């Protein structure tokens, strides 16, 4: 559904944030790995049409959604094509209630029926958002705000969800829950691009992965192959063998608690 071909992006004259990047997403989960400043957020901004708002410009290449070029479209037009981003930093409307945040996300839904169906899906994925419906979003915990940010994006019924570092700053158990939620979202038929510095988590959730280094694709392939490669172990998983095992156990437990309930309904 998403094809990024030969994409180069600059900020101003001097910062080359992406150089000749190729990325493809069918209907799976693609993990985008890389250290600080590698170009991960720039890739998501370009796909969602917001890179110009950050002072960036596409200098060559193209971004296609279902075969149509979107790299010069405005963000709202890209949302209408089913591509919705959750930017880094849990950007919820802090003074609005949880319910109002979700309603704002639903403004992009195709119809009232689609909105109602999306709301039911969000409530099943995130029961805590039902419990906290009338609470101000700014009073939620970090993990709950991340769930609200994802839930708000799901309210418009996206076919491709772009997640920028959803695990950032969260405790390990909450990271495991977010991982399980991403799996559920994918199992329900939404493709996902998952930008993460937490390579352990991302490679467990994704089926394919790319690693960016200083704006270029350094590695690409099936997530299981990348997770097993010496280079990825050294660069992105080094010294985390124990925590990787622990994260895997936590992810399995969180998924066991979450999935049975929601999957049956949404995969049918
Ligand atoms: P991080 O994990 O730290 O968020 P990243 O992989 O998401 O990093 P980007 O934020 O895409 O990387 O940044 C890629 C490069 O572009 C970096 O050199 C960064 O300093 C630069 N950059 C990012 N945003 C801007 C901007 N608005 N104006 C100028 N330069 C920018």
From TrEMBL:
> Domain of life of the organism in this record?
Bacteria
Residue ranges annotated for the ABC transporter domain, each copy included: 2-239
**Which controlled-vocabulary keywords does the entry list?**
Amino-acid transport, ATP-binding, Nucleotide-binding, Transport
List this protein's GO terms for biological process. L-amino acid transport
Query: Which is an annotated GO molecular function term of this record?
Result: ATP hydrolysis activity
Note the InterPro entries from the entry: AAA+_ATPase, ABC_transporter-like_ATP-bd, ABC_transporter-like_CS, BCAA_Transport_ATP-bd_LivF, P-loop_NTPase
Q: Name one Pfam family in it.
A: ABC_tran
Gene3D superfamilies cross-referenced by the UniProt entry: P-loop containing nucleotide triphosphate hydrolases (3.40.50.300)
Report residue spans for region: Disordered.
246-268
What family does this chain come from, according to its entry? Belongs to the ABC transporter superfamily.
Q: What is this protein called?
A: Branched-chain amino acid transport system ATP-binding protein
Q: Which organism is it from?
A: Pseudonocardia cypriaca
The major lineage groups are: Bacteria, Bacillati, Actinomycetota, Actinomycetes, Pseudonocardiales
């Amino acid at each position: 559904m998403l094809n990024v071909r030969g994409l180069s992006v600059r900020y101003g004259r001097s910062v080359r944030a992406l150089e000749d990047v190729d990325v493809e997403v069918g209907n799976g989960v693609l993990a985008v790995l890389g250290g600080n400043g590698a170009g991960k957020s720039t890739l998501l901004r370009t796909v969602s049409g917001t890179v110009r708002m950050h002072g960036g410009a596409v200098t060559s290449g193209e971004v296609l959604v279902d075969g149509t070029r979107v790299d010069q479209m405005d963000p709202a037009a890209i949302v209408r094509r089913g591509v919705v981003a959750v930017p880094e930093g849990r950007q919820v409307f802090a003074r609005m209630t949880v319910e109002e945040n979700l309603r704002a996300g639903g403004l992009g839904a195709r119809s009232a029926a689609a909105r109602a169906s999306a709301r039911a899906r969000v409530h099943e994925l995130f029961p805590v958002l039902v419990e906290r419906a009338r609470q101000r979003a700014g009073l939620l915990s970090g993990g709950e705000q991340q769930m609200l940010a994802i839930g708000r994006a799901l309210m418009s019924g996206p076919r491709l969800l772009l997640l920028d570092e959803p695990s950032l700053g969260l405790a390990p158990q909450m990271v495991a829950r977010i991982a399980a939620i991403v799996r559920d979202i994918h199992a329900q038929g939404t493709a996902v691009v998952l930008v993460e510095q937490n390579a352990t988590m991302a490679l467990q959730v994704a089926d394919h992965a790319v690693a960016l280094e200083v704006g270029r694709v350094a590695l690409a392939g099936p997530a299981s192959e990348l997770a097993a490669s010496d280079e990825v172990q050294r660069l992105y998983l080094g010294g985390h063998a124990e925590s990787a095992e622990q994260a895997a156990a936590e992810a399995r437990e969180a998924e066991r608690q979450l999935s049975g309930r929601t999957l049956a309904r949404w995969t049918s």
